Amino acid sequence: MNAASRFRDAPGMAPRSIRMSLDGETLLARPGETVAAALLAQSGDATRRTPVSGAGRTAFCMMGVCFDCLVTIDGRPNVQACMTPARDGMVIRRQIGARRLGDQP
Amino acid sequence: MSPDLVIIGAGPAGMTAARIAAEGGLRVVLLDEQDRAGGQIYRNLGAAAGRDWLGPDYARGADLLRGLNHPGITHQPRATVWRVDAARGVIWSRDGESHVTAAPHVLIATGAQERPVPFPGWTLPGVMPAGAAQILMKQSGMVAQDAILAGAGPLLYLVAAQMIAAGSPPKALVETGTDLRHALAKLPRALPAAMTLAKGLGLIRRIRGIPRHHGARDFRAVALAGGRIGFGFTTRKGPQELDCGLLLTHLGVIPQTHLTRSMGLTHDYDVAQQAWRPRLDAWGGSSRRGVRVAGDGGGIGGADAARAQGALAALAILHDAGRLDLDERDRRARPLRRALARALSLRPFLDAAYPVPKAFLAPPDDTIICRCEEVTAGAVREAAACGAHGLRLMRTALRTGMGPCQGRMCEPTVTGLIAQTTGCAPSALGPGRIRTPVKPVTLAEIAALGRQPEETA
Ligand SMILES: Cc1cc2nc3c(=O)[nH]c(=O)nc-3n(C[C@H](O)[C@H](O)[C@H](O)COP(=O)(O)OP(=O)(O)OC[C@H]3O[C@@H](n4cnc5c(N)ncnc54)[C@H](O)[C@@H]3O)c2cc1C
Ligand code: FES
Fold first, then answer.
1. A101–B143: do the CB atoms touch at under 8 Å?
2. Which of A22, A37, B241, B271 keeps 20 to 30 A from B235, CA to CA?
3. Taking CB atoms and an 8 Å limit, are A52 and B373 in contact across chains?
4. Do residues B180 and B271 lie in contact, with contact meaning Cβ atoms separated by under 8 Å?
């Protein structure tokens, strides 16, 4: 799948100056933004596959209750992207494949 | 120095309480898992300068943020509370490390979450709650494009108006339909809240020009080429098919009760709001001494009610702490009670105007109702028919509520499905037991906590 972002920036927003990496590619974010927002700004695709059926999911509730936004950040798996402020140099990995909560890096 | 009061949640309820308690001489620690204070309604307000398109209601939270500038208040951002321990205190996690903050008084002000809106296809990337899209507007200045709004309730209109003001109007508004006659019968009781109501009407005026569909049911979403979403539903005019880049759904909000339930506090089922809420006295006092609850986490009342409840709880805590005599407490409470009554007078109207359609409490068999474990409504019905007549039995049979969200996304639906299959009332099925940690932390983190000396934040 190669879906374009489902969002656009409102007029007058500052540029995305924070540089992170997503599976080796550059991911940009605006200061104050969460990792989940940066992911949704870049693409409309899944950022995770479910351990049960392998279905694609991406951030859903944006407020920390659904856990569909789980990614690996700087080696730590199952981090809620919607609750994590973006920071320069973060290394983010999509969680494709069976990774259950409680798995250690 | 250990604090006198720990407040969990920096929304209007928690922020109001923090200021009043600190002004009364208490040392307050304010914990919130967000990066900034504000709660849901005023999320990120302190850093959203220039976003006038979010509207005047959003800007109204500025005084609460200023109120946190008090030497008696320590605000701990990104602090996710995962347990309130009767012996040790409030346990919270940040960046994979847990901390304990103990105090004689605890105020829980954790607010609401959006009610899950399950239908076939709601798990696809491209389907989201409307409140989530609003969070992106407030926190990132990102606006949904090519989006359809579907469901019911005031927040749906607010998000539509904010999208219009931000220059990205929704392409359609699909409403599950208002039982207006039923709602109008409640209207006289809502008159003191005429301001809020007028605002609602103002919102509806602002969304004029957006194509609207009424009485929509049988929602269904499918993935189309390029990640687009096909949205099917049925109205009186027959089956409808629309397509969009993003489908935003909403059917109101429900109290977040995982923390209060995990503590074993007494809860009651609110039939009008179709949700559980902790049993509270007129000062937010719960069934456990020293633990109070304020705001939407104690039952949905909205931001103005949350402010008043936060203030009332703070006055009661000041009195308990020997800082405020009874007369003074009651004198200061009087205008707050009037404000609370005014704010709550609208609820019967809203609850009647925007009932949750039964089909979302008990959706069609092919709907995934547990997003974590991917359990379908059909599987729940089958298990219920075979004797899984309660949330716990269902959990054992199908793992509903065992995933990372701990039932936040499925419990209302599992309840609705069991009630439908067995004919018993939802109130007889709960409240489901919640175990700590109420937000997942690794075993390593819990173990490390046990080795730490007691600390105070
Ligand atoms: C997504 C969403 C958007 C909303 N938008 C609006 C709006 O625009 N206008 C409007 O009038 N109403 C809105 N509401 C309704 C809202 O519930 C009330 O208006 C108001 O915010 C309630 O105030 P409160 O203080 O009770 O809780 P909230 O404002 O919800 O604040 C609760 C706080 O507690 C924190 N919290 C929760 N659990 C934990 C935990 N375990 N550990 C640490 N912190 C925790 C949360 O991060 C949050 O900041 C929205 C609700 C939701 C769910
Ligand atoms: S998007 Fe729901 S928890 Fe992050």
1. no
2. B271
3. yes
4. no
More confident of the two residues B313 and A11: B313
CB contact under 8 A, B440 and A102: yes
CA dihedral B415, B416, B418, B422 (to 10 degrees): 130
Domain spans of chain A, in order of start: 18-95
Q: Which CATH class is domain B5-114+254-324?
A: alpha beta
User: What per-residue confidence (pLDDT) applies to B177?
Assistant: 79
- pLDDT of amino acid B203: 73
Which ranges in chain B are annotated with CATH 1.10.10.1100? 358-424
Give the β-pairing of A48-49 and A56-57.
Answer: antiparallel
Domain B358-424, what architecture?
Orthogonal Bundle (1.10)
Whether the Cβ atoms of residue A27 and residue A39 lie closer than 8 Å to each other: yes
Q: What distance in Å separates the CA atoms of residue B161 and residue B14, rounded to the nearest whole number? A: 28
Mean predicted confidence (pLDDT) in B296-325: 97
**pLDDT category, B440, cuts 50, 70, 90?**
confident
A interface mutation test: which of B140, B257, B409, B434 has the most A CBs within 10 A? B140
Q: In whole angstroms, what is the distance from residue B350 CA to residue B153 CA?
A: 8
* pLDDT exceeds 60 at position A81: yes
Question: Which residues of chain A have a CB within 8 Å of the CB of B132?
Answer: 59-63
Q: What's the CATH code, domain B127-250?
A: 3.50.50.60
Looking at per-residue pLDDT, the higher value among B167 and B351 belongs to B167
Q: Which ligand is nearest to the CA of B409?
A: 2
For the structural domain made of A18-95, what CATH number should be given? 3.10.20.440
Q: Where exactly does CATH 3.50.50.60 map onto chain B?
A: 5-114+254-324, 127-250
Q: How far is residue B410 from each of residues A86, B149, B351, measured CA to CA in Å?
A: 29, 22, 21
**CB atoms inside a 10 Å sphere around CB B94:** 14
Contact across the interface for A61 and B129, Cβ inside 8 Å: yes
Q: How far is A28 from chain B (nearest CA, A)?
A: 12
Q: What is the mean pLDDT of chain B?
A: 92
- What is the C-alpha separation between B438 and B441, in angstroms, rounded? 9
From B73's Cα to the closest Cα of chain A, the distance in A is: 23
Contact list in A for residue B372 (CB cut-off 8 A) is 67
Ligand nearest to the CA of B154: 1
How many interface pairs between A and B have CB atoms less than 8 angstroms apart?
144
